[in-house]
Amino acid sequence: MALPCARQEGLIVKQLHDETIVYDRATHKAHCLNHTAATIWRYCDGLSPISEIARRAGKRFWISNQ
Question: Which stretches does DSSP call E strand in 1-66?
């Protein structure tokens, strides 16, 4: 199974206050990520399984597993 890997090529990424703007130069589309989505996107490094990404995000945002 492939590990989640956020694409980095062909993107312009700008941090604006609580949001991250991701502009795709190939499709000419912009995406606005809130703080939570941007954090998870950054965790998708191609090295971490989904369970690890979820654990890290939960720890960062104080979510308990119940």
Answer: 11-16, 19-24, 29-33
The answer to whether position 65 is within a domain reads no
Looking at the chain, the number of H-run helices and the number of E-run strands are 2, 3
**Is 29 a domain residue?**
yes
Copy the structure tokens of residue 44.
């998708």
Which tens digit of pLDDT belongs to each residue from 18-62?
899 999 999 999 999 999 999 999 999 999 999 999 999 988 887
Q: Which domain holds residue 15?
A: 11-60
Report the SS3 class of residue 12.
strand
Do residues 53 and 6 make contact, with C-beta atoms less than 8 angstroms apart?
Answer: no
Number of domains in the chain: 1
Report if residue 27 sits inside a domain.
yes
Q: How far apart are CA 46 and CA 5, in angstroms?
A: 4
